[in-house]
Design goal:
Layout lengths: L1 E9 L16 E2 L11 E5 L4 E6 L5 E2 L5 E2 L9 H4 L5 E2 L3 E10 L1 H8 L6 H29 L18 H7 L3 E3 L5 E3 L25 H13 L5 H14 L3 H24 L3 H6 L8 H9 L7 H20 L7 H15 L28
Antiparallel strand pairs: 1-8, 1-9, 2-7, 3-4, 4-8, 5-6, 9-10
Helix pairs in contact: 2-3, 3-4, 6-7, 6-11, 7-9, 7-10, 7-11, 10-11
Amino acid sequence: MAQLELQFGTFIADRSLDSFLPCHGPVFHRWLPDGIADAVAIELPELSATVRFWCERRGYVEDKGFVQYDIERREVDPTVMIRQAHLDGGALYGSIHLDGVPDSQVQAIEGGETNSENYVALGKLVIKKILDPALQRFTKLLRDSFGQYWIRVPESFDSRRYSLGQHCHLLNLKWRDKDRTWREFVPTDRKHATITVTLRRLSYGDFLTRDDWRRIGDLLQTGPEPSLAATIASRATRLLHEQRISHALIEVTTALEIAVEERLRHAIKGDATLKDTIAPFWDQPLRARLTVAAALGTTVPVSDLHAALKCIEQRHEIVHEGADPREDAPELISQALRVVGALAVPPILKRPPAPVGNELRARAEDWDTGE
């Protein structure tokens, strides 16, 4: 049995928020961690492992007298730092100290035996049991308990997307040999999963037509206003197009729940007796309520209803079990949104596809009006 030391480094800020809060990582006030000397640690005694996280004082003092983050420079002036309200912590660094590593695994890593059984077993332990869970726990604390909402919680290793070696590469994972030299940790070859491209004909008719424009004019005068379910469904659609699948699942499930309520209240038309009679109905699980509502004179295809029920299941797994979305989630969300559209009162009139590149320049003979 032997010891193994590894280090990693990654950016954890969601850079899509740069226009509002441009930063590369955690944001500090009048102080920056001084590298490993200020590391925070999580002990994993059941795995004989310790994981440490830290940020480094990287940057320089720019012309206006403020510390500016720059990963290539280490010129942070502490006398300026302690007077500055907003300090960019930059990239996140960390280390793993692992005891009790089998000699066969040590020999595999020292011999560079990429793809060997022993190297892969070690890689899976480091990534799936130690680093990914610890990194997710750390970033969730930053994001949710300390309000740093721009922090991105890294996804777990998913072999459907890329190899274990590629996952390690993205984390800049390295191990230290007997000569104290850092070497890349490569349990498998670096590979991406095969990308499957599906050519599809978009429902261009779901974009605004001349008749739609005129109908908007009528609705401006007579109403009704879009329903709450429609508003949330629109948000879910945007999240789906942005590939924020977990958030889209949560939003579409909320939209389904509100659409069910809108449909049922519309059906009883304010009748006080009927309202009292169905009061116990609202205590039923959402899946049951959705199934009943879909049967109330709507034209919801059974396949779409089944997809909506699966969305509810996946939302429960994400919220209550911390699971990742399944591979079929995007298509299920699309189907569930059609259910929301049918149940909402007033109904959602159209749901255009995501505008993707040259697909918006299709020729007339390529149009699919959705008929």
